[in-house]
């Protein structure tokens, strides 16, 4: 059991913890692939509790209400990862990040453009030239400000770096805003060192009602797979098909 506080620095939306960062906290003490599920808003600058129950890591708020849990996962749940793009192609794709021209989550720990290097991660995926719709990538170098005592990027920061790219894969494919991370199943094969150039890649998988599924991966600059994850995003508001049907009725 441990008492923790997630500071404002690690926000996703302004009043809630970054989904990938929180999922990584739930995963960091478990071996192998892990599924982290976020059940409720993650309060910032407030006392939280981590407990181990039947091999799972459980996060509770100050009143003992469940916020999320992490548990061992079947590797079969992880996505099949496409070949890594070249570092140059990933860097070029990052220049097409939608957040460079539109407002999304400006102070998000993972993708906020208003966060400085060493304060936020600044992971900006954009459309990968010549790839299928929604396949996105960028170059990313972990900052030394997040390194552990051994100079490696902590588990929760790796998970945070993989968070928002899955969301933007769907934005890039369809141009639609508004979804929250619900579940992330991931594994880390090797944590990158601070200052090590990396490639982040994301791709849309499928949709089921208000759920969108995405795959995300982290590679070294040479294409070595470092981490991968499967994500479930919950669409805010009606699913796209229902919204389109409603608009058609209104126009009739």
Your description of this structure?
The protein is built from 4 helices and 11 strands, in the order βαββββαββαββββα. The protein is globular, with a radius of gyration of 17 Å. It has 252 residues and is of the alpha+beta class.
Molecular shape = globular
Helix content: 10-25%
Q: Ranges with pLDDT <50 over ≥5 residues?
A: 242-252
Number of strands: 11
- How many helix segments? 4
Please identify the structural class as seen in this structure: alpha+beta
Strand order of the largest sheet: 1-3-4-5-2-8-11-10-9-7-6
N→C terminal distance: 58 Å
Could you tell me the mean pLDDT?
A: 93
The share of residues in extended strands comes to 25-35%
Biggest β-sheet: count, sense, barrel?
Answer: 11 strands, antiparallel
What is the radius of gyration? Answer: 17 Å
Q: Please write the string of helix (H) and strand (E) elements.
A: EHEEEEHEEHEEEEH
